[in-house]
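re: ur question from yesterday

yeah so i grabbed the chain u mentioned. its 480 aa long if i counted rite. heres the sequnce exactly as i have it in my notes:
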Amino acid sequence: MLTQADFEARLVANLDDFEILERYNAQDPIVLKYLRSLGAYLALFSQDVDISEIEPFLKTRDRSIIADATNKGILPIGMPTQHIIEVINRSSNSITLSQGRIIEDNSGGRPWRLLQSVTVNAGEIGEVLGEQSEYREVEYTVSNTDTFHRVQLLLREDLSLAGLTVRDNANQTYNLKKRWMNVPPLDFAFNLTTDSLRRLFIEFGDDERAGRTAQANQVFTFGLLETYGEVEISRLKDASLVDVLTTDETKVSVRFKQGGIVRAGADPLNISQLKVLSSYPALYDENAVFLGNFDYSVRQKFMARCHFIAVWNENEQDRYYGVTYQDINHLHIAIVAKNEAEQANLELEIIQYIGQLDSLYKDRVKVHAVIEKPFALTLNGRLAAVHDLDGVKAQIKGLLVDRYGRSKLSASRWLVNGFNSQEISTQLRKNITAFQDNISDFSLIVPIALNKPHEWVYIAQDSITLNLERTAETGTAWIF
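ran it thru and got these structure tokens back, copy pasting raw so excuse formatting
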């Protein structure tokens, strides 16, 4: 890669004007700053060119990852947390809290909506399902008639979009149709898109091609459901009603039920998670499923709530578990939820989601128990005498567990061949200082056996074997 000085030298070598060359030699600021700024620009551009040469299969830059996510239509959508809430009635009369009432948790000041109505008799405790979300409506008036008209959704600070409804001034509801797939002309539909800044836009259609053209002065009402996403469940204790409507409600206490988590929330996918999705071929999406491979679709929607996800089809099932008529036209899943309390509910959500994507697999998804399989890695190496042997061993184990451990993103997929030994070697040379001199060296021995889809492969402290020795001892002191 050429540096800024290299570019500056080449620019100066190509100056064919004697006067400008003399001014450069005299360090004229006008000429000097112009050439150096141009050289700096070319140096930065050359870095992008060099990096792009290694990105055909694995995206490395944040903007490349975000651009890929934008092209694939991966939206920055959050998932609201749902929790059982206890309502304690200390008044002498029965009280009723209607669906949609807002409470506020005392730990973070986040609003929660009641998803059901609840009636609590005097002196008793009632339970109701609550969700950490806020609903509001925004009106938008179209300024000009335009095909595929776009309007940005302005979300509140620190909140993510969790749900959206669109209706016009005739109270006609528009349905979300991603990428305008299979949408006939004049259909009441809209598309939701994002850009490189992860902003969200509603896109209306075209009367001649797909959907309906947004007309000038047409008024739309957007119903926005916003959420804070992931919530630290252990801190949820007490809560309170935002609005007190009666005297009896002043004697009502609200708290989160111990162990009452129903669904753990999730933030929009971060760069690391988007990087995993960017490694899939571009033809994968939630509608056009390639050869019955639903792994990408399920991972895109649920990976933020799982430590491990594996989805495999009939072909993979026959290859690794044997052929049986019971697996014909069936899909198979194996997951580990981040929150153990919602394991069963999460499995059910994934089964229902697959049925929505393809009705062929409705009620034809089999759930397999996950078997944990620590990755047995052996490192043989020698160190220069200057290095602390025990300290280097601790660094190696810490690095490997931190990057490939049980709850890490790199271990969240079915790894048929295990972890890539070249990648592990690169990480060790890059991050372990002891392996960066000209004396120290190491080699890796990794398992060669194939892993089945339900086997969760990760690196643990006990699965790492380190055989390190010194190339030379300190020896005796020289005598003069």
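noticed a couple things. Residues 29-52 form the longest helix (24 residues). also Confidence is low (pLDDT under 50) at residues 474-480.
anyway ttyl
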